[in-house]
Amino acid sequence: MTTATTTSTMREAFLHATAAAIDADDRTVLVLADISAGAEPVPDLMRRHPDRVVNVGIREQLMLGAAGGLALTGLRPVVHSYAPFLVERPYESLKLDLGHQGVGAVLVSIGASYDQPGIGRTHEAPEDVAVVDTLPGWTIHVPGHPEEADRLVRESIDGDGLVYVRLSSATNAAPHHGDGLQTVRRGSPDDVVIAVGPTLDRVLATARPDATVLYTSTVRPFDAAGLRAAVGEVPTVTMVEPYLEGTSARVVAEALSDRPHRTVMIGYPREESHRYGDHDLPL
Amino acid sequence: MLDMTTVRPPTDPAELHRLMSLMTGDEKHSAAATSTLDVLHVLYDRVLHVDAAHPDDPVRDRFLLSKGHGPMAYYAVLAAHGFLDEAELATWARPGSRLGLHPDRVLVPGVEIGSGSLGHGLPLAVGTALGLRIRGLTTPRVYVLVGDAELDEGSNHEALAYAGRSGMSNLTTVVVDNDSATHRGDLAELFLAEGWRAITVDGRDHDVLETALTAAHDDRPLVVIAVVESKES
């Protein structure tokens, strides 16, 4: 059996973890729309389990609809493409073919926000987490390291619910495992910074020296109890997310509704980008 | 387990109209309200292996009503076959009823998908047919009912292109054709071009519907185009 702990990217970790699940169980099905169909270890996986890798071609509405049908028969679909083609183009199918039918699936995207700065707006979806967050019942993972991606994909496949896993080519130097908000640096309870996924190393390098730094690779459901436990009576909470700024403003406000507080939301701005090249997170 | 040899007594068409009247209040029903009625009648009387006593049996046939608009005929047939108590039909379309203007699988026994937004049933049916095959369930068949206008939706074209090239012999699409599509072409040609077997029949003739819906298609999916009165007539 292949293990993913030695792989170098989140995408490789995800594909190996999914292949391991398909080898080990009788219910996981990888559903593709050409993207990653030729990436290792998928071709060998298709030879071993020709029925359990379904490549529908460049047909993302069908990819999601077929995932819903597979789930209706008791299987566990793992659905994958670039973020805009996985959650934006077939958005209504996430809503109706999965959520409204009362079935689950694991959606795994690559191409996070501006991961591929030369590729342009058509392949960039910094809106993805906000889009998925409009739908009820979804768990959203934003791993910050390939080893976290491996663990989160495996755990998601083992469950039954609706899960979106947003993979990135940006990673932290080391993985941080654990559920909910984890304290990475203990500082002032009145100056708390939450780093999401691959923003952690940059947050640690730029945050005020006496600030508390929390980390999470799971943004939905949001660990409101963990945040309340970490902050003081009148805190400033800075949320650093590697996607659309303010995506988590609602859940942070709900978590702190019992006390006066100030929030600072850092992420990528709303802009109709016509620029090829790096988009720096405004830290 | 389902008893696949069960022969059910035929449902009286007058009985289905009576059940529909419990919802609509009308003694007679327009062609638009009954466009799917004869297809549903034949499917549930003569074709589908489903049993209200075992609605979740893994080896049941799956019937997916994709064209969720105007589900009175569907609810009437489900009541005639024991999935619904006819007393519940009077609650149709009222607030809080399980029987809405579009059917909801989470609410209604025997309903395989929630539908209403056009173009979702065929992709779901493709996934269901794949899933049954993966699970080694070779007996059950998947039937999905779409409208001719529903085929305007591009998601159907993604699904029928894939299904026709994937040897999906456990899948049958029924197109109830009441000539309501805008910019329509030849429906049979559309499916044939993608590798399906296609049969066009009178959507009111129960015997030819049964023959078509049970026709052999061992290596490819089947489409039955059931022609009924024009929506405008």
CATH architecture of the largest domain in chain A: 3-Layer(aba) Sandwich
Taking pLDDT < 50 over at least 5 consecutive residues as the criterion, the unreliable ranges of chain A are: 1-5
Could you state the oligomeric state of the chains shown?
A: heterodimer
Helix content of chain A: 25-40%
CATH top level class name of chain B: Alpha Beta
**Could you tell me the number of beta strands of chain B?**
5
CATH A-level architecture of chain B: 3-Layer(aba) Sandwich
Cα distance spanning the termini of chain A:
41 Å
Radius of gyration of chain B: 17 Å
Low-confidence residue ranges of chain B: none
Instruction: Say which CATH homologous superfamily of chain B is assigned.
Output: Thiamin diphosphate (ThDP)-binding fold, Pyr/PP domains
Number of strands of chain A: 12
Structural class of chain A: alpha/beta
Domain tally of chain A: 2
Portion in helices of chain B: 25-40%
Q: At the fourth CATH level, what is the homologous superfamily of the largest domain in chain A? A: Thiamin diphosphate (ThDP)-binding fold, Pyr/PP domains
Strand content of chain B: 5-15%
By CATH reckoning, the class of the largest domain in chain A would read Alpha Beta
Q: Mean pLDDT score of chain B, rounded? A: 94
What topology does this entry show?
The complex is a heterodimer of chains A (about 280) and B (about 230).
Chain A: H1 10-24, E1 28-32, H2 42-48, E2 53-55, H3 60-72, E3 76-82, H4 83-88, H5 91-99, E4 105-110, H6 128-133, E5 138-141, H7 146-158, E6 162-166, E7 182-185, E8 188-196, H8 200-206, E9 211-216, E10 218-220, H9 224-230, E11 236-244, H10 249-255, E12 262-268
Parallel strand pairs in A: 1-2, 1-3, 3-4, 4-6, 5-6, 8-9, 8-11, 11-12
Antiparallel strand pairs in A: 5-10, 7-9
Helix pairs in contact in A: 1-7, 3-5, 9-10
Chain B: H1 13-24, H2 37-47, E1 62-65, H3 72-80, H4 86-89, H5 121-134, E2 142-147, H6 154-164, E3 171-177, H7 187-193, E4 197-202, H8 206-213, E5 222-227
Parallel strand pairs in B: 1-2, 2-3, 3-5, 4-5
Helix pairs in contact in B: 1-3, 2-3, 2-8, 5-6
